[in-house]
Amino acid sequence: MPVRRSLLVPALALCAALALLCADLAPVPAFAGSSAQLAVRGSRMPRGATIYEVMVTNPSVGARTRLNINEKTTVDEIITKARKEMDFEMSFLDGDWYLYEIEDETKPLSGAMGQYNLRPWGPEGMELHLLYQPKV
Fold it and tell me: pTM for the whole thing?
């Protein structure tokens, strides 16, 4: 008479192995960063400061970026951040960058942005033009 082995033990072992394998392959939430990193990013603006979003455009190449600023943000800081975002950081391009309000490109902006008509981003939001104008 042939020996009858129980299939229960190998079946349980197979189920346990599959459960362990599936637990390792389970989808993990795909986040770009942890909440600790987000807290650090958000802390770059002073507390209590009103944050404005401005659109900075380089019209000669069509590059655009959106920046969060406040009243104390200087034009030089905006130029530096916008150049970095638009990949205009080449050393031979240092200096000779000017920032203008889109409505009036006759006089460049300077100093802190609080002296200009900052407004929340929207249809009437603030758009700035970043122009490279080398002195000849």
Answer: 0.64
